[in-house]
Amino acid sequence: MRALVISGGGSKGAFAGGVAQYLIREKNIKYQLYLGSSTGSLLIPHLALDKGNKIFELYTNVDMDKIFSVNPFIIKHKKNQEIITVNHFNVVKQFMKGKRTFGESKNLKKYITDNFSEEEFFELQKSSKDIIVTVTNITKNCVEYKSILECCYEDFCDWIWISCNYIPFMSLATKDGFEYADGGISNVVPIHEAIHRGATEIDVIVLETEHNVGEKIVGKNPFSLTIDLFGTIIDQVEKKDIIIGRLAAASNNVKLNFYYTPTKLTDNPLVFNKKIMLDWWKQGYEYAKNKSESMSQI
Length: 298
Known about the structure:
Helix content: 40-55%
Radius of gyration: 18 Å
Number of strands: 10
Oligomer: single chain
Shape: globular
Number of helices: 11
Structural class: alpha/beta
Distance between the termini: 25 Å
Strand content: 15-25%
């Protein structure tokens, strides 16, 4: 059984979309199992439907307003560069309301339900494919995996949204009496879960470079420092997930095909710039194409 695993990575998911589009459309790979964490959870239902053009339009036309109902960021343009600062008004307003996060992502929840229909949900349920999203149960301090085969439409849309909620910058969700957040907090690259569910070959899209490139510039204020700190934590979780996945693959004779980003795409994946994401999608497609061609020559 062949599986597609897509890591978390916020706006960098556009790169993963380009890679997956090449693998599915040009290489004609048929996946029976799709697993995603965070932004990967947004991609996999549409990829499983083989609606590459639709997800391309959705991803390359998304902006901050479609994600945030309360945006904790301000983006300023200076000398052809984007400067990202804190939206003090929105953050203070959140604190005054007794909220525990800097921002809210309820617009993303609506964007998901507006663009993933109930008919598409039932089409996937009736297919031979399984689509699984990764979430973090904050209350129980554990990772959970939500299969489309075990959910109703409303619940599955909730789990996709919850999987993307990168706290403390996005919404902290309460569901079934527990508090949930981004799947990437506990499992960025769910390779091991794909093996546990019977995958024998896995294409893994990791939205980071394979090796560290350069030194990170640490934030100059508490807000940007928090972003950098959480980014470092997620990077370490990602490395752990890949090590565990490689070990599990070796033990179970599972073939892993990795697709890393060839360059560092961004330091803040919570900023959604349509033009940049369009470029990333094209980069992902070309990267997968070039890698496939080089592998065929070996």
